[in-house]
Amino acid sequence: MTGPHALKPFLLAFPGPLRDRLVAAVLSGEKTATTGLLVEYEIEKEELPEAGERSALIDSDGREVAVVEITEVRVLPLGEADLRLALDEGEGFLSVADWREAHERFWHGEEMREALGDPGFVVDDGTMLVVERFRVVETLSPDVS
């Protein structure tokens, strides 16, 4: 490995309390999947990640805290999200309905709508998602200045 600084950032949510909770869930091993919107990749002209790709997990302070390896990437419509995904997201969801409610709240939030450049953005059963499954391969010591 050439060092964590050579890795693409692995960003969960936006900096703040939600990202802090998600990063902690990854580090504890509770969170082994994450779900994003395909439209985010299209807007940013970013290629989808591939299995085997490694990235640096970034905390709310912009520090690299772990190296994660993608184990699976799937594109599917929101209506096909299942209980396994809800559980693997590691946020305590016990049903697909709870998972969906929390994700819709995030995707319909002001920060996401601003990031997408669409103040009226809404998801429905046909909205395409990118589901990434991953594992932590290394925990990094945060740089303390």
Question: Could you list some keywords that capture this structure?
Answer:
Sulfate adenylyltransferase; 5 helices; ASCH_domain; DUF984; 145 residues; alpha+beta; 5-stranded mixed beta sheet; single chain; ASCH domain-containing protein
The first-level CATH class is given as Alpha Beta
Work out the count of structural domains. 1
CATH topology: Sulfate adenylyltransferase
Q: Specify the overall morphology.
A: globular
Q: Give me the Rg, rounded.
A: 15 Å
Mean pLDDT reading: 93
How much of the sequence lies in strands comes to 25-35%
Low-confidence stretches: none
Number of helices: 5
Strand order of the largest sheet: 1-3-4-5-2
Please outline the major beta sheet. Answer: 5 strands, mixed
Structural class: alpha+beta
Any idea what the CATH architecture is?
Answer: Roll
Run of helices and strands = EHEHEEHHHE
DSSP E strands, number:
5
Helix content: 25-40%
The end-to-end distance, rounded to whole angstroms, is: 24 Å
Instruction: Spell out the CATH superfamily.
Output: Sulfate adenylyltransferase
Model description:
It comes from Streptomyces exfoliatus (Streptomyces hydrogenans). Residues 12-138 form the ASCH domain. It holds the Pfam family ASCH. This is ASCH domain-containing protein. The chain has helices spanning 17-28, 38-43, 83-88, 96-107, 110-116, and strands at residues 8-10, 33-37, 54-58, 64-77, 128-139. The protein has 145 residues and is α+β, with helices and mostly antiparallel strands. The chain has one domain (4-132): Sulfate adenylyltransferase (Roll), CATH 3.10.400.10. Strands 1-3-4-5-2 form a five-stranded mixed sheet. The chain is globular, with a radius of gyration of 15 Å. The two termini are 24 Å apart. The mean pLDDT is 93.
